[in-house]
Amino acid sequence: MTDKTLYTVTVYSENQVGLLNQISTIFTRRQLNIESLSVSASAIEGIHKFTITTYSNRDMMEKLVKQIEKRIDVLRAFFYTDDEIVFQEVALYKVPTDKLLDDSHIEELVRKHNARILEVNRTYTVIEKSGHTDETQALFEELSRYELMQFVRSGRVAITKSTVEHVSLFLQEQQYRQNQL
Amino acid sequence: MAKEKISGAEALIRALIAEHTEYIFGYPGGAIMPVFDVLYDYRDRVNHILVRHEQGATHAAQGYARVSGKTGVVLVTSGPAATNIITGLSDAMMDSTPLIVITGQVGSSLLGSDAFQETDVVGITQPVTKWSYQIRHSEEIAWAVARAFYIAGNGRPGPVVLDIAKDAQTGLTEFDYQPCQFIRSYNPNPAINMNEIDEAARLINQARKPFILAGQGVIIAQAEAELAELAEKADIPVGCTLLGLSAMPTDHPLYKGMLGMHGSVAANIKTNECDLLIAIGMRFDDRVTGDVNQYARQARIIHIDIDPSEINKNIRCDVSVLGDARAVLQALNPRVEPARHTEWLESFAPCEEVEQAKVIEPEIHPQKPLMNMGEVARKVSEATGNDSILVTDVGQNQMLSARYYRFKRPRSLVTSGGLGTMGFGLPAAIGAKIGAPDRTVCFFTGDGGIQMTIQELGTIMQYGVDVKIIILNNNFLGMVRQWQALFFDHRYSETPMLNPDFTEIAAAYGIDGERVATREELDGAIDRMLSHKGSYLLDVQIDPDGMVFPMTPAGACVTHIMLNATEKYE
Q: Given B122, B123, B182, which is nearest A178 (Cβ)?
């Protein structure tokens, strides 16, 4: 694999047990490492949406998406490069409160990174930041000097910039197909 | 009035009957006993074939499905039975064979507790099935069976697993069977795109050297007549994949032989000389293409297939047409203009002459006392009027019987192509005979392959199945030996086999047979085998030095063809 781009794969599926397993083995079989994964109910009732990121090339992505769509309970699968989507991640940082208070930069830090403080107690403070990986990473690096206790970053969520809603169209087509029977 | 309630087990059997299931290949055990108990009451409506190992049940169901076009049904228990079916599922997935495999499962309250004979069937089988589903409530059974038949048999066929928890078998349910006709997330028969058809027709009408590659998709779609129509109308030669064999009669003037590693010289050479490849219902397996970077680079490629994931998977095409092969050809053929490609067709002859002289003649008319596999296969084929069903195992016996058998009708070859499963043949032959009782079934195997599933001789005995068994016996694992001879400096690591007397083993199962040691005995033995009522076993002693040629070494260009151990086609 020469060109190594971060691709975002979105999968729309019926809400069936074992779907995640079916999808993840398609990545595994092609030695594609899943960088991040997020699964939730979609805007359409009864349909789940998977957002998966992986480094690969276009040729592999075309094949991968078809293999995913081949699974019976998958409705549609797509892949995108970063310029085709609006995407976001959220990160949580747990830092010792006393270390934060010893430092006068806390306000500057929160302002600069557009972060939020979710909880403060005597032991720790939880800070939240949403953004792209490089942004949450930048805050991570700055907070590291406060002896970060925990750090977690979510999988990517993404919305396409396309003006056509392909899944809705697909569902309309299927409705038509069913009506023809 | 309240509707009648029946057990989940009975709902299962009634659902199978509603789907016109005539045969179930299976093996009972703890977690599926409620279903076998119901089966006892339905003995007059559905036949159960008790195999000797669950793997055999899957291969028998595959053989049944491949000759009949119907969905094969397997019924086994949980745990070890479920792990024993994996090879058959994988084989059916690779070779697009419609199967429904029903496994028993421990009671739903025990799931995940490592209960006796529990295994994660859905988890294990998902990668090798079209659909795998666990049923935990008896009410789901009718719905799941309907869906299973729809998925297994439509689109590109394949295996489906239904894993039924024991309490779903015993629980009561109303039964109102509705066949499945629609799944929102799966459209098995995509509508034909007429733009694609027009584009394909345009390429065909422009082509001066077109070549058709026909695969099993033609047979599955029953598109043999449409294939012949296209070939004849535009005067296009046809090569078949291993699984596509019998899609066109062997003696059709436009039929140019098998493609691939052990295919005909002409079919492979012309792949890299044609100006248009028309691939129909085939998937450009590496055994067909050899090195993909040197495969048909000079040609435009039209790929007709029902499975979108096959398009541009191994070989990039210029025009793809998604759909059932028959529907596509019915739309395409009227747009194809009649043409003559006399010069192009004549250009196949030099390849054919070389192959005839250097490969075929020495194989079927050898000037040596020891017998060849190819000569035995050709003799058996001719003795059956070239109209029997050939079932093979895997290895030299498979390639040489496929090469030298001749076919008149479709669905005349049952073999394990994609997975290459040794031990496939004997149970598949049993299933083939049950699926096509009016046809003679000749099963070619090796001394290695037969011993992988030899216990199925017991199934033959129990049901009096009539399978003609021809062991091409060289006391070696012949195909591995061939590679050792050609590529591993004749180092025969673990390929010699000390074998039992196969005729005595057959005799112990009440199956007649004979050992054929010399060429003089062969014709008589074949006659005795074919005129014998019931199964018969020929243990034919074969030259261990025999090899399958032509041969394109794995990963080499499709035109790199060995005619024998020392000579390459130039």
A: B182
